[in-house]
Write a structure and sequence with these properties.
The complex is a heterodimer of chains A (506) and B (115). Chain A is mostly helical. Chain A has 22 helices and two strands. The radius of gyration of chain B is 20 Å and the shape is elongated. The termini of chain B are far apart. Classes of the chains: A mainly alpha (506), B mainly alpha (115).
Chain lengths: 506, 115
């Protein structure tokens, strides 16, 4: 028995329930936020270490003592453990960032319990080895995200939330239908057990049908083309710490599920399913980056870039060669850190200038050069400038594309990288380089005067830490590459996963 | 029985998608309610429909005698019903709040966050 697999789910639940107990004591809630997510980060790092050093490199635990495939299992393979660590990093960074940025009103509406619940749902989705259980965790994180999205209840939030809620519910119900059909066809819900059952099915066409249902459902969650419209409509509306948490983790649950299902379960017709994924990836990249090019609102630009970056990860999965999978995993690691960091920077810009509209702000390089530096690190990394983390992610994926001679997608990936750079330079030129527009100077001054040095320090701490991780992934790419390589090896061979989970019961 | 249920499920799906494509947010939520019911009914049908065969095992036996109704899909539906109930309660509150804030129930008037 290895309890550490369950800890990343138990800890946020505990912290969340405790925050509910101290509902009327915001100070306790804040400390619980930091301590709980810190403990989550520690537990997830321990989990990754234990998973990596395990002889099978897969840990599993049967919840309730029912052996797999009858009971629900929690499984931590390398992909799941890596994602959990990223969730821990994101949770901790945003919890620290929430201290100075989340207003009293939002705290009173239960911001911290919801944040813990969201993290529990995300970690549960990463660690479960049961298809229906995955649906339940996805619902847990969705409900928490719904409530976080409308914290404050402004008009834009309501409008964004309706689209977000409607499309994500649709996706969940499609997922439920797909789970039901899976059970009807195979009589099991355990992922490891499903591998063999699907392979033994006479009518492989039916398996592909179910695969497509899963693909559409997770495609909506991952914000892949043409299912991404809820994301840019909603992500720029909530408080910025929430935006960052969403940007880092929510779509990545969809991406993770795609990686899990289309490497473990649905590899019977790669020429069909992964070809669709590849086209989807290409269009996701292009539409996302073109959408961003047209925007002049800080967080909207970033939201559209989430969409375009999702395309790179799916491209890694869709090419489905060993190197491409390595690239996909590497890209996820790089992207979560960088994208959330950019949102955090946008929050600091807002607190210094009073607006997210690039036309209304400027002159930050003159007054806050360190902030410009902290923006440039994730921004250039996002665009793929060496030696930062994004360069290696893009390099591995594009190289995998070249090896397979998929020239179309390689060209798309390169052009999109260039356009990403354009967007980032636009933000740089508007927010940092040009002078502050005079007509908005008063508001900017008022906002800047209202921010105390202590609050600013607390905001910059997580940004600096995430930027340091970005630089580390870039400069010390080798160990990260090896980790991604080991994870990709596991994805290439479902039998490792199956043997580790089912053990002797096969 | 299954073919009839299949048709019913199909009609429910069609009706719910139709409702979700309407502009009114109230109809959107009605569509979501129908959709979750359709999914639950689908799982129920997939589990196989048998009459009067509870999955109870007589003392001493290893298997129930003479077939049984699969209890697992019903457990799944129960979970799904609880979840969709909670989520839909949230959706209803959300459209109420949205109506208060926007003063419209027309989705076409809620486009300020698009593009």
């Amino acid at each position: 028995m290895s309890l550490e697999v369950a800890l990343p789910i138990i800890i946020p639940f505990l912290a969340g329930s405790l925050s509910l107990v101290f509902y009327r004591a915001p100070l306790v809630q804040r400390w619980l936020g930091v301590a709980g997510t810190g403990a989550l980060l520690l537990a997830s790092i321990v989990l990754l270490y234990r998973t990596y050093t395990d002889p099978d490199q897969v840990l599993s635990i049967a919840m309730g003592g029912w052996p797999a495939p009858y009971g629900i299992v929690l499984v931590s393979d390398l992909l799941g453990a890596i994602m959990t660590v990223l969730a821990g990093i994101m949770g901790f960074a945003t919890a620290v960032y929430s201290l100075p940025t989340i207003s009293r009103d939002h705290e009173a509406f239960g911001y911290y319990p919801l944040m813990h619940l969201l993290l529990a749902g995300v970690c549960g989705a990463f660690l479960t080895g049961d298809v229906f259980n995955l649906y339940v965790w996805v619902e847990v994180l969705l409900v928490a995200s719904f409530a976080l999205l409308i914290l404050g209840g402004e008009r834009a939030q309501m409008e964004g939330a309706i689209k977000y809620v409607a499309l994500n519910l649709l996706s969940s119900i499609l997922l439920l239908v797909a789970v039901g059909l899976t059970y009807g066809m195979t009589g099991t819900l355990n992922m490891a057990d499903l591998v063999g059952r699907f392979a033994a099915m006479e009518n492989q066409g039916l398996v592909t049908v179910v695969a497509m249902l899963f693909m559409v459902s997770f495609g909506i969650k991952a914000a892949a083309f043409p299912l991404f419209f809820w994301l840019p409509a909603a992500y720029h509306t909530p408080p910025v710490a929430v935006s960052a948490l969403f940007a880092g983790l929510l779509t990545k649950v969809g991406v993770y599920a795609l990686f899990r299902f289309f490497s473990l379960l649905f590899t019977q017709d790669v020429g069909y399913t992964h070809e669709i994924l590849l086209w989807g990836a290409g269009f996701t990249m292009i539409t996302g980056v073109l959408g961003a090019a047209a925007q002049y609102e800080f967080r909207r630009i970033l939201s559209f870039h989430i969409v375009s970056q999702i395309g790179y990860m799916i491209m890694g999965l869709a090419l489905f060669s060993p190197l491409a999978l390595v690239g996909g995993v590497f890209y996820i690691m790089h992207h979560i850190i960088v994208k959330a960091n950019l949102f955090l920077v946008s929050g600091v810009v807002y607190f210094l200038r009073g607006s997210y509209e690039l036309k209304h702000i400027g002159g930050l390089w003159r007054t806050h050069p360190w902030l410009g530096l902290l923006f440039l690190i994730p921004a250039l990394s996002l665009a793929g400038v060496p030696p930062l983390s994004g360069f290696f992610g893009k390099y591995i994926i594009i190289r995998a594309g070249v090896e397979q001679e998929s020239w179309g997608i390689v060209a798309v990936a390169l052009v999109v990288g260039l356009l990403t750079l354009y967007s980032m330079i636009k933000i740089w030129a508007e927010a940092f380089w040009k002078a502050q527009p005079e007509e908005h100077e008063e508001r900017a001054r008022a906002f800047e005067a209202a921010v105390s040095g202590k609050r600013l320090t607390l905001m910059v701490l997580p940004i600096g830490a995430l930027a340091a991780i970005t630089v580390f992934i870039g400069l010390g790419a080798q160990p990260i590459y090896e980790l991604a390589y080991a994870a990709a090896e596991q994805m290439r061979d479902p039998q490792i996963y199956v043997n580790a989970v089912l053990g002797d019961t096969q | 029985m299954e073919p009839v249920m299949a048709v019913v499920v199909g009609i429910l799906f069609a009706a719910s998608i139709y409702m979700m494509l309407r502009r009114s947010i109230v109809k959107l939520v009605i569509g979501l309610i129908l959709l979750s019911n359709a999914a639950n009914l689908l799982i129920f049908t997939i589990g196989g429909m048998v009459r009067g065969l509870p999955p109870l095992i007589a003392e001493g036996d290893k298997l129930p005698a003479g077939g049984w109704a699969d209890p697992l899909p019903q457990a799944l539906i129960l979970t799904a019903i609880v979840i969709s109930f909670g989520v839909l309660a949230f959706a209803v509150v959300l459209i109420h709040r949205a109506y208060e804030v926007v003063q419209e129930d027309d989705l076409n008037k809620m486009r300020s966050t698009d593009t």
